[in-house]
């Protein structure tokens, strides 16, 4: 397998420049004859193949344009000169097509707009006058068609920034209207919702703050108040967002579009691009480069060295319906600070570790409690949901998400192994087909406690859930009321069960009344029933259900419940530090005053 980053230390600006070139190199053989389309694979999306191939062409520009703007070398510009000419030519067989309402082409206008704005010397000036005219016409259609009332508004902004920079007519009114509507999604304290939804996820970094900060730099003179506002909002967000990263650079897997990989860390470079020292320069540089190095250690490539659909490894099971083979190259948004000179404070700073952060940090906008233990960050979560994406209940509505355990999505609908119900209470009326929390009826954050009310069988089953951190554990309390017989399976954190090199190191599992524990070289994961009512079981999940590890086990508590009311209380923990297992497992948290108050709330 070709690994483009295998020998790159990823510590200096020159290292990061080389990373762009190395990651792009496997794409060269994927360009079409006319160079306007890039075919990386044959998997499908809900949009036409030509747009998937446009995606493969355009998204690398997120990294190539900053590389060139910052004085870096790139030897394949001829591919883009000819590709731009043919892709926007209605008479050429590789024409990208007339953009339509809500069409995928509108997304890919953003990196083309960035290329024109950042590096017109390379992407505009060499073009034939006819090509310039056709490219401007094609990009301008984003002002004439409908875009989604969500992060897509900023693609209109990015296209117009590009047009304005190269001195051709652009739609100032459409640009300003897009920004005004975009600002209505602002929640406060640096957080955006992705349009009128409950999503408070990585789209804050993938698009909202990313393009907001690009706009802030280009509009510093023409729209200074808004530019300053966007810089201030992104700076506020950075203080919450740093809690989403573990000491080794891993980011918290959560939500959709995780196939964009190290775009998770694009905020740190975007802040530098806009000259926003939200955190000390060395801290932001450390956050960015540790994150990229973490990704470089993952098997995220296909055999030819192209980025794969999936998260840490190739995995179509987690993909959204809009994830084409070129989609992962949104990751190149990480490379925006390459547009800055070597003398910029971001590049001059020495990498610094994360500051001393609180071990528990409530974040009201994403409805999370961020929890930090040595080498591990996990989030307790209640309140977010998105049933419009594949496996939305797993990507948004689990009880917990982890930098070392990731999360799992179902592989099929029958049985616990296929369902892979980590960090969920799964309920079944037949013992084989399970339902989980999807859209809560009610959710709130109360200090260092999360509450939700949900109903997997409306009118028949209702559950109230409380989540409380007790590091390295967390406690879950469920009040279950049912008018039908139910089978329950409550999963702890998934654990990597990849076999070690030496059989003598092989793991073991403990299954007993009230507890389940799994131990592997990757660490340990356990769940304890604090009332001793349920049976412990270590479920061997189906392969490729977890987005971090191809093979996992899930410590689980199993129960049966006749019609009536039940209190289910458990403690859950997982650590990569094997030395902590004996001590922590033998001393689980007890039910304290806070939990007793919850249990006593109802007669």
TrEMBL record:
<dbReference type="InterPro" id="IPR049237">
    <property type="entry name" value="DUF2264_C"/>
</dbReference>
<dbReference type="InterPro" id="IPR049349">
    <property type="entry name" value="DUF2264_N"/>
</dbReference>
<protein>
    <recommendedName>
        <fullName>DUF2264 domain-containing protein</fullName>
    </recommendedName>
</protein>
<dbReference type="Pfam" id="PF10022">
    <property type="entry name" value="DUF2264"/>
</dbReference>
<feature type="domain" description="DUF2264">
    <location>
        <begin position="12"/>
        <end position="354"/>
    </location>
</feature>
<feature type="domain" description="DUF2264">
    <location>
        <begin position="358"/>
        <end position="591"/>
    </location>
</feature>
<dbReference type="Pfam" id="PF20938">
    <property type="entry name" value="DUF2264_C"/>
</dbReference>
<dbReference type="InterPro" id="IPR016624">
    <property type="entry name" value="UCP014753"/>
</dbReference>
